[in-house]
Amino acid sequence: MKTFTRTALVSAVAALFATTLTSSIASAAPAYAITDLGTLGGTTSQAVAINATGQATGWSYNGGGAQRAFLYSGSTMTALSTLGGTTSQANAINDSGQVVGGSDIAGDVVYRAFFYNGSTMTDLGTLGGTNSAAWGINATGQIVGLADISTSSSTYHAFLSVGSTLTDLSTLGGTNSVAYGINAAGQVVGYSLTASDAAWHAFIHSGSTMVDLGTLGGTNSKANFISAAGQIVGLADVTGDAATHGFLHTGSTMLDLGTLGGTGSNAYSVNAAGQVVGVSDIAGDAETRAFLYSGSTMTDLNTLIATGSGWTLTDATSINASGQIAGSGTVGGQYHGYLLTPIPEPTSLSLLATGSLLLLGRKRPARR
């Protein structure tokens, strides 16, 4: 029979203790702490973007029932006002805290893209038409969106704004286009009608060229965001147009991210680590849930927060390099924006040390 010294026995039991405790913590502990961003006085808010420092932006109803863009910083939600009209909506934020979106102007008959620099909201104008909206901004303040190109038609094109100049990025051969995201390198993504307006296709615009990213085998696609590394996320029809799935495009490959058991999904954002967030139908397609796609697995974010939190996370719209996630869900019967912050996991080494100390601290039984 094999015999063990006390030291060997302690080490063996401590290792078992550490393995069991690690497994228990991994299966029971939440991976994220959740922060309710609140509202501007109404009952509804939606968080759409987060920057590297954890500032978030989106829109909320105020106490008077008007929709307003907001900036959430620290623990405070601040209204960004409007361009003179009733409503405004923020769509993106960069690491400097600069925000872009769209707002009614005086009289509420025209909607314009805006740039907010921390104190002032500026009208970005159009490409010659009446209306515009901004959807993305990078670290250097380059802004993208869509704008009418003529007052006599409803045609709109993707634009790139540098300084006070809006540049028309044209289309993939069709009538209209929209730019949704831009990275530090100035690469722009969005979607455009193809020739003869046959379909909507995701595009990347780099330099002076707009390139069609294709689909997942179906008719249409749309790009929502591009990371600093050039990873692109969005949604696309699958073969036969039976469903629309979120995708991750890397290099020349468009990867189908699947769903959480339902028919459709949409990928909104990707960080430097390749983590993707978005929204997916669940089995039966009765409801949607926020997801995190990491490695090769799509996980319902509701399974990664504390049980009994009261939250149902319905969508996740933005993720930063630290893994913080912004999105929206229901809590207390209201729809609110949220911020998820990763909870550091205990290391196996610290658990092993804890187990060993517990065992070594026990007194030996007295000899008879």
Q: With helices defined by DSSP (H or I, 4 residues minimum), what is the helix count?
A: 2
Secondary-structure element pattern, one letter each: HEEEEEEEEEEEEEEEEEEEEEEEEEEEEH
Query: Main β-sheet: number of strands, strand sense, barrel status?
Result: 4 strands, antiparallel
Strand content: over 45%
If you had to describe this structure to a student in words, what would you say it looks like?
The chain is mainly beta. The chain is 10% helix and 52% strand. It is built from 2 helices and 28 strands. The strands form 7 sheets. A 4-stranded antiparallel β-sheet has the order 1-28-27-26, with no helix packed on it. A 4-stranded antiparallel β-sheet has the order 2-3-4-5, with no helix packed on it. It has a 4-stranded antiparallel β-sheet with strand order 6-7-8-9, with no helix packed on it. Helix 1 crosses helix 2. The longest helix is centred in the first third of the chain and has 23 residues. It is globular and about 55 Å long.
